Amino acid sequence: MKKIKSKIISSGRALPLDIVTNKEILKTINSSEEWIETKIGVRERRFANGKENASSLGIKAAKQCLEKANIEADSVEAIVVSVGCPDNFGASTGSLIKAALGIKSCSVHDITAGCSGFIFAMRIADSYIVSGMYKRVLVIGTEILSIALDKYDRSTYPYFGDGAGAVILEYTETSEGFQGFYIGSDGSGNDVITNLAGGVKNPISFDSIMRRDCCLKMNATAVWKFATKIFPLCVNRVLEESGYSLNDIDFVISHQSNERMIKHCMNALNLPLEKTAINIQRYGNTASASVPILFSELMDSNVFKKGDLVVWVAFGAGLSYGSALYKF
Description:
- By secondary structure, this protein is α/β, with parallel strands linked by helices.
- It has two domains: 5-175, Peroxisomal Thiolase, Chain A, domain 1 (3-Layer(aba) Sandwich), CATH 3.40.47.10; 179-327, Peroxisomal Thiolase, Chain A, domain 1 (3-Layer(aba) Sandwich), CATH 3.40.47.10.
- Helices cover 31% and strands 24% of the residues.
- It has helices spanning 22-25, 33-39, 54-69, 93-101, 117-130, 206-210, 220-242, 259-268, 280-283, 290-300, and strands at 5-14, 18-21, 44-47, 78-82, 107-111, 136-143, 163-172, 177-185, 193-194, 217-218, 251-254, 309-316, 320-327.
- The strands form four sheets. Strands 1-7-6-4-5 form a five-stranded mixed sheet, sandwiched between helices.
- A hairpin with a 3-residue loop joins strand 12 (309-316) and strand 13 (320-327).
- Helix 3 (54-69) crosses helix 4 and helix 7 packs across helix 8.
- The two termini are 21 Å apart.
- The model has no long low-confidence stretch (mean pLDDT 95).
- InterPro entries: ACP_syn_III_C (IPR013747), ACP_syn_III_N (IPR013751), FabH (IPR004655), Thiolase-like (IPR016039).
- Residues 110-187 form the Beta-ketoacyl-[acyl-carrier-protein] synthase III N-terminal domain.
- Pathway: Lipid metabolism.
- Keywords: Acyltransferase, Cytoplasm, Fatty acid biosynthesis, Fatty acid metabolism, Lipid biosynthesis, Lipid metabolism, Transferase.
């Protein structure tokens, strides 16, 4: 009996129009272009303007997927969206995207798992397909982090950017597709990347706004310590559980958190930098959108060939972490 898997049939991405350089960032923080480029690896990032939001970027990325796959929107049976800053707290971002795509009937829901969210979303979509529930699922990571940033905070403002990426997963009985996943979360690090107000526990108030408690807070040192341990662990675990080894890897698609961090982790795994790609210099850290944005760029550049074994890895707020193994 053939094993059912999910495979990617297309990918897409969308970036805001406004490009924000380090020179502009430095208008409100005490730092330097050299520090930002050396310590983080970012030269510029995209910030959404007043007309762009999580759903609008997600819609653009989704339409790209549909066009590349040459399929009708109505053939999509489910939509899973990873989003940290949704348009509102009523209708899900997935529901807004579904309506804009003109899909009459399909399952939609959002998930929140920080920068690891897209890996989690793909795991859910893969489970839908492998279980036989659906045969075609649209997965989107869309983030508008700029709205949550404190422009006076050096520990967050230079790091992040906005964007969206998407893939369409489809049923397959061939050898290609997802070979395995490894996901988890360490709740002891809930306060490492967070905001102090804006939820039900601490609603927005005049005082919280004045203290900038609604803005994203990040302990960069703690993130580094966590990520440099969990990145290699995630890569090794998904390989082991799928019956492969480091020697089998052709490429690593990493969350674009920090250029130095990615290079450090690749070195820790004894993998050459030629087996990964970095685009944080152009987009900053786009949270759960970073992995699908990078993947879409790589697909458009025809980087992968049949038989290639690729590891996806991400980590973020929660502290969450996840990896996926994919065979072309």
